[in-house]
């Protein structure tokens, strides 16, 4: 899925929670930053976090 995001086939990733998105915090941050740099938003439902929000 990450490769599809990089190829711009996907512009929003929705995950139930951070723990379902990546195995650990460092991986989660790395992927979220990588996707954000490619203008791909990530939304974590349980934590109500949207990576493209300014706050």
TrEMBL record:
Q: Which InterPro entries would you find in this protein's record? A: Resolv_N, Resolvase-like_N_sf
Residues of the Resolvase/invertase-type recombinase catalytic domain:
1-53
User: Which terms in the Gene Ontology molecular function aspect does this entry carry?
Assistant: DNA binding; DNA strand exchange activity
Tree of life domain:
Bacteria
For this entry, the protein name equals Resolvase
Q: What is the lineage of its organism?
A: Bacteria, Bacillati, Actinomycetota, Actinomycetes, Bifidobacteriales
